[in-house]
Design a protein that fits this description.
Blueprint lengths: L22 E2 L26 E3 L2 E3 L7 E2 L18 H16 L3 E8 L5 E7 L7 H18 L7 E5 L10 H6 L4 E10 L2 E12 L2 E6 L9 E5 L4 E6 L3 H25 L3
Parallel strand pairs: 1-7, 4-11, 6-7
Antiparallel strand pairs: 2-3, 5-6, 8-9, 8-12, 9-10, 10-11
């Protein structure tokens, strides 16, 4: 049995800016796309349909194998499964509850040597959008807490930003929201000589991330591969003309919606 997989979500885009506490950025959010996939019950029933990828099953487009999965786990679509390690994880543990209490979601924390030392915190509203005022609100709340933690010796910059248009994908819901867009996925381990995949997202179905790739060993054409979340080290969207056009289109639509209440309140 096969069934259609369909998802739509939206966001906005604005250019990079520097304001308030060190560096505050405002960029993008999700865009609307759709894709179709097949129930995983359709694969594995025909020996002639399957090809091997290491000791895992890969089948032609139209079927969805599970890469690195032996059973379907229960996964919270809105819980991050790609998380930080080391110092970044310590900072994330501190700031995530505060960000959530303000009504936002943590996307990622990273610690880099840029501009000396920089702590970058990406956040968004549950709808994938965020404003400059909301970024400032987050900064005012978490900056004192980070100062108390004193995670780094010497001077450092705190950068609060949106995820950006070529955003990281860290939740199962991200792969649903961005289905149809091109993405890069890095695995925690090498599978049949492959550590990195690039292709069109096919959503998150039956506990797996699905992506259509064209360079699977042994496959003769585009292949939809299912990835166990615990196998994924990092994932992010690829900046494409299609993604930019859709984002700008949705940004214009958001502006029209924001203007509607004012138009209704005008006197004739």
């Amino acid at each position: 049995m096969r069934f259609p997989h369909f998802s739509i979500a939206w966001g906005e885009y604005a250019p990079y800016i520097d304001v308030a506490h060190d560096h505050l950025n405002f960029e993008s959010g999700p865009v609307g796309v759709r894709s179709f996939c097949f129930d995983r019950r359709t694969f594995g029933t025909s020996a002639s349909a399957s090809r091997s990828l290491g000791d895992r099953q890969v089948v032609p487009k139209g079927h969805c194998p599970v890469l690195g999965m032996t059973s379907v786990p229960s996964i919270d679509l809105h819980q991050r499964f790609i998380v930080e390690t080391g110092l970044a994880a310590e900072i994330a543990d501190l700031v995530e509850p505060r960000i959530v209490a303000l009504g936002f979601r943590l996307v990622r924390v990273s610690v880099t040597g840029r501009n000396g030392s920089t702590i970058q915190i990406m956040a968004e509203r549950p709808d994938g959008r965020i404003t400059i005022g909301e970024i400032e609100q987050i900064s005012r709340d978490i900056s004192p807490a980070i100062d108390v933690l004193d995670p780094m010796s010497g001077k450092y910059h705190l950068e609060i930003s949106s995820p950006g248009i070529d955003r990281p994908l860290v939740r199962a819901s991200d792969f649903e929201t961005w289905a149809g867009q091109e993405a890069r996925i890095e695995l925690k381990e090498t599978v049949d000589g492959q550590r990195r995949l690039r292709g069109r997202l096919e959503g998150f179905v039956d506990g797996e991330v699905r992506i259509e790739v064209s360079d699977v060993p042994g496959a003769t054409g585009p292949t939809i591969v299912g990835l166990q979340p615990s196998l994924i080290a990092a994932a992010r969207l690829v900046m494409t003309d299609e993604l930019i056009r859709e984002d700008l289109r949705r940004s214009a639509k958001d502006e029209d919606l924001d203007a509607e209440p004012h138009a209704e309140g005008e006197e004739e």
